[in-house]
Fold:
Amino acid sequence: MTGITRRSTFGIAAIAAGAGLLPAAAAQASPKSEVPDFERLTVRHRSVRIRGLDIFYREAGPRDAPALLLLHGFPTSSHMFRHLIPSLADRYRLVAPDYPGFGRSSLPDRDKFTFSFAALTDIVAEFTDAVGLDRHAIYIQDFGAPIGLRLALKRPNQVTAIISQNGNAYDDGLGPDWDEMRDLWSNPTPEKRAAIGPISEARIKRNYTGGVPEEQLERLSPDNWTIDWTSLSRPGNGEAMLDLLTDYGTNVALYPAFHSFFRERRPPALIIWGKRDPVFAVAGAKAYMRDLPHAELRLMDGSHFLLETHGPEASWHIRRFLDRTKLA
Structure:
């Protein structure tokens, strides 16, 4: 190997793993090791028909491997998992759908589809059937938290473990900034609904940049809010998002049921949280420990979209958790 020593080969591999470009197992392989199966690391972009809607999803990893269902938040899509998926796909099956109205999935008319968290959960449940996910862990973030936990309530034997990345399930995580939303949930009126809108590109960008220290801003790809806005600016999509924000209070009402599930089922759990998140306070992360005292808690110096600023570090913790959990 001209001009490259064996030591530098390991250095290049370590950098690749740290950047999320290769899974740890592949990056640590020596020059004499078997070549990694790059085919299984390659992300596939697919679509499946559910209730007359095209549900777009990303997938990688062996189909017979332990599975992780990745549930995105607002205002993004499965795009948020574009780096995480190949970083874990050597050993796990990763599947990440876009909900109706998000990303590349269908945007149904509001008079034909109810944009509620119950409806999105039903779509996700049928999606898991369609792609053959009988048992799987869940990665939940933002909107993905109530969807994933509702799925766990509906199908408790299906969910094998929980990774919550700024995925709130406690009143503790809803700070004073949620007061206006709470007022809307308790007494919804057209005026209060209008006050929380509209959905704009600037607002989407703030979801990414809010709480991020200045020295970390360059880690954020502007493609994120540009891509999100391309989807959410479709005619009628802004109103659909306001429907979901108005319906979010139904998730808060289910918090006690989520907590009972935690205590009774005791799923293995990794709580990994950007502690600078202005949306869901770090108290929401710590609150999980009341009902899941065995959970692993990782507080990181990031914000709401932790994978955008701390992707390699988050991926490392997630891999270690999954490996220790030995998912069935």
In short: Residues 42-325 form a domain with the Rossmann fold fold (CATH 3.40.50.1820). The radius of gyration is 20 Å. Residues 1-19 have pLDDT under 50 and may be disordered. Residues 2 and 9 are 12 Å apart (CA to CA).
